[in-house]
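Thread: "does anyone have the structure for this chain?"

Original post by V.I.:
We have the sequence but no experimental structure in hand. Need at least a predicted one for the grant figures.
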Amino acid sequence: MKLKTLTTAMILATVPLTGAFAAALDRSGQSISAFLQPGNYFEAGISVLDPDVSGQEAGTSATNRQIGDMAGDYYFPSAALKLQPTKNFSFGILYDQPFGADVAYSGTNVFVSDATNTILPPESLAVIRQNTINTTFNNLSAQQRVGAALTARGVDLTTTAGQQAFQQTLTQYNTIAQVKAAIDAGVLAGVESAVDAGLADVNGLLGTGNTKVEVDTQNLSFILGYQPTENWNIYGGAVYQTIKGSVSLRGQAYSLYNGYDASIPEDSAVGWLAGFAYQIPEIALKASLTYRSEVDHKVNVTESLSTLSALALLPNGAEAAAAIAAASGETTITTPQSVNLDFQTGIMANTVAFANVRWVDWSNFSIRPYKFGLVSEAVGPLVSRPNGFNLVEYSDDQWSVTTGVGRKLNDQWAGNVSVGWDSGAGNPVSTLGPTEGYWNVGLGVQYSPTPATFIAGGVKYFWLGDAKAQTGAQSGGSDYVAEFEDNNALAYGLKIGYKF
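Reply from O.Q.:
Generated one for you, tokens below.
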């Protein structure tokens, strides 16, 4: 069964939709199949994703309102150039956009600011309000309470008459229970009014608008391969990666962070990859295993929090707010390590079976912008996080599998069908990407107008996994603020290729 001509035809039709809508921030799937094509080769492709992710408030949210589609459409290009200067050495440059996010909430829900929002959850704010009132009132001496009561009545305590009234009232306060009770009630009402006015001022610091997030990355992989025999290919190289993004948190779900903005300037860093492949061209057998390292980015994130002064509501909070406002430091963002296993083999004349297995180390991934982290350490004890918390983190590693069958119909046409599964990266999961994995089905077709050129296209339909969404302050626990169920996505891809 000689299937050598299928070695390229079937695999090419399965991409560029390998990742599309994977767990966490995974996007492209980081395939290196272009590098493993025989001879000199070039390709360019584009994938488009149209997700629909909606849900409703739940869990710790005080309301149960609907949440409209919060996942933005996006596209990501890819390109590859592979050269085979000798039979034993090959070189390739691969471009893709491996990780990303595009999120924007809208409507009326806990992720959009409105006039009913409070600086902390209402139950927490009620406790702080009562403690502040009690502390303030109990710390007032008899002289201060009498003075406050007389001042409220319009008595000028700087005059002789005012001082006489003060002494007389103070004596009555200390000797007549009814006078004491009346003055205490009036002063207490004044303290309550002042505290409520202060809280109203603090609540006025909250942000306006909606929660939105955008993260973009780009990869250039420079790969050198050594083929000691026709069957083996050992390869490795450097990966140049850039990252940039922006985050805006709004709505009651984020309480004190309602008004937080962060801008991540574009940063570049270098990682590496290594792997090996084995093939038997006569039966269209090809297997490859590729490891990609973490990539560390150290960036000075521009952060602002309009509610920072509200830390004064907490013990020693005023000093903490001043220190945080003056603080500066780098934020480390480490994109995760991953492993891809790709396999294909001929199963009958003109037909191959293929599979891809991918692992991504999301359980060790987190983002904690510098000032965000300092604020989280200040308020962490309120939410049982004494060491603070992260803006984004995931509890599980991602596993994904795509498998299918491809068939050559004639010298110009080939097609394939595939089924995919993704485990997700934990549940509950971040409000900035509230789905847990997926199932999908895909169809691909490839047209080769000449033996050296092809055009490939594909479409995939995703059933997105139900998930509970939690804020950074809730991560690591079972609390959540919303549920997202019965969601889906549709992906399209187009690729052109040239063998020379």
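V.I.: this helps a lot. The longest strand covers residues 260-280.
O.Q.: and Residues 33-119+205-499 form a domain with the Porin fold (CATH 2.40.160.60).
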